[in-house]
Design a protein that fits this description.
The protein is mostly helical. The protein has five helices and no strands.
Length: about 70
């Protein structure tokens, strides 16, 4: 958490924006969009180990794209 909080806000926002854009990209399959979004958000410390936190953030950003139902 300390590593994430020490990053400039502009950097965190830029990475998050790219990840959200990726998961919302309807030109990609859901699987491709998910992989792309996760790959981007993993650039941030705290999102690199496991994918639960990253998945939760990206699901909140695009629930209709990330839903498996």
């Amino acid at each position: 958490m300390t590593d994430l909080m020490s990053l400039p806000d502009t950097h965190v926002r830029a990475v998050t924006e790219r990840a959200v854009t990726a998961v919302r990209d309807t030109t990609l399959t859901r699987s491709e969009a998910a992989r792309t979004g996760l790959g981007i958000i993993w650039e941030l410390p705290g999102f690199r180990t496991g994918d639960a936190l990253a998945s939760a953030v990206l699901t909140a950003a695009a629930p209709q794209r990330r839903s498996t139902r």
